[in-house]
Amino acid sequence: MKAFKSLDGLVCPLDRANVDTDAIIPKQFLKSIKRSGFGPYLFDEWRYADVGEPDMDCSKRPLKRDFVLNQPRYQGAQILLARDNFGCGSSREHAPWAIEDYGFRVVIAPSFADIFFGNCYKNGVLPIVASPAIVDQLFRECAAQKGYKLRVDLETQTVRNPAGEWFRFDITPHRKHCMLNGLDEIGLTLQHADEIKAFEAKHKAAQPWLFA
Amino acid sequence: MAGKTLYDKLWESHVVREESDGTCLLYIDRHLMHEVTSPQAFEGLRLAGRKAWRKESVVANPDHNTPTDHWDEGIKDPISRLQVETLDANIRDFGALVYFPFKHANQGIIHVIGPENGTTLPGMTVVCGDSHTSTHGAFGALAFGVGTSEVEHVLATQTLVGKRSKRMLIKVDGKVSPGVTAKDIALAIIGRIGTAGGTGYAVEFGGSAIRALSMEGRMTLCNMAIEGGARAGLVAPDEKTFEYLKGRQFAPKPGDWDKAVAYWKTLQSDANARFDTVIELDAAAIEPQVTWGTSPEQVLPVGGRVPNPAKEKDAQKRAGIERALQYMGLAADTPIQDIKVDKVFIGSCTNSRIEDLRAAAKITKGKKKAANVKLVLVVPGSGQVKRQAEAEGLDRIFTEAGFEWREPGCSMCLAMNADRLAPGERCASTSNRNFEGRQGAGGRTHLVSPEMAAAAAIAGHFVDIRKQN
What we know:
A: alpha/beta, 32% helix
């Protein structure tokens, strides 16, 4: 996993609530057995005027010009600004893979769906929960200022706007440690292999039918 | 001191270690697997030179990409075929307790075959790279969906890293009226709490209306917990649970059975357990439900009318209603029962079990599909369900009505195989998600119960099932 320390990134606003993972990456792209290459199909049905299929050359596809990802002012954005319940629905990790592959490293929203929220951390994408009032403010500022950027710093858990105003966000110490250092969580867990084995033996003695 | 909830008991009995910030290493008993969310996990194991920790925990089968007809022709789409063959190869290399390859007599939707074989048991932790893993909570198992990185983590370590959820009790008391099913209870709950209402929670379903549900009904209800935002739904095990499990292939053997049941009986929330949130519903007030929009929370009783955005004061909600109406091709204030359907889908991990098919067949018997309905797909949840239905003659009831009787799989719930809606087509569906494009790009989905879907197929539009009997 890519480490994440800080980012000074262009913001792209996606102003709708309950964005589901089917919208983030439609099902036909889930047939891939790879972990990369999903970026061109991010938000496929909202982004392109035709129906996408795997392995299409997206540079030649007709665009829906109004969609934010297609607007010139948001090209190169690294921070996605979203609304409530972002990432609901299917557990597909292809959603954060597509977000990361497109170039986003941070998603800011008032709330996220649980599975998507957890999946982001595994892929070096930082999901930040901000209060509805702050998110409203960010949407207003983003609409008003071309080239609107935010500075996200994981060490201090802060987000700063161009005017120098800032807010703090929450993250568990475990997730922060893994993100800052780009750690492989499996490797960390396997350091406790003896404890897992001991638990397993006890568990098997108590409920042998689970191991039949 | 407050007692413990069922969720707390399940969680605490699987904690391997706990960090000072509450992050736990949780032991996983059962790992269900399908072809879509597992290939990258196995690839990760290979790249790191790791083995599966306990291959006997794995129950796997392809279901999302598999066709539901012309099995003799195999999987025509080469990308789908490769994904299914990749699962074959991964199970061959890493092992599993149960594997039903494509065309095996018992192959089916993973969330149907797990319970069917007794590989889902009370007191277990069950995970799968699939959000509808919540289904298995119907047995009093802590079951939830995970991403592919977590699939790899479970394969390599038999554990997951996580923090305890908040606890919600959804209590449904009273008696539902005839024609009102577990699906309607689930949709009514989601209509009440919203699709994010359960975010951060494990939800326990309780109350007399839940106790009265069959195991199939409880699976339907827990399956939809994720549509209310909750990763896990739970129903405490009882005599119905034990009766359902007894004698199944991987259920405890006679020597262990009494001990297992004695333990399972402790899997109840204590009378003085504290929940962070309690929601109560009156079962008698629940009507057959139909979704009208592009989120499961956009749902109405069958007697209702599609909402009018002009009446919504909140600007964001108003925009949401307008967008949903536009996508769904519906005018404000249209009565639900005036909405005509082009296709009907009866199936999915929500509603493809034998009881669902019996209920749909009861409505269908002796009738024909309406002329305006182009296709009615009936897709059983597994090979076992299919054989049982055929033994009862349900397949003939469907085919005589002009419905198609197919092979098991996920099918048009998410349209990864050839079963899908064309742009603009409208479908009455027993599945779980009415998101934009879910059943095919541009397709329009209305979620309903199996009875309501069958009745819509016959009438050509939604009808109040209570007036059909």
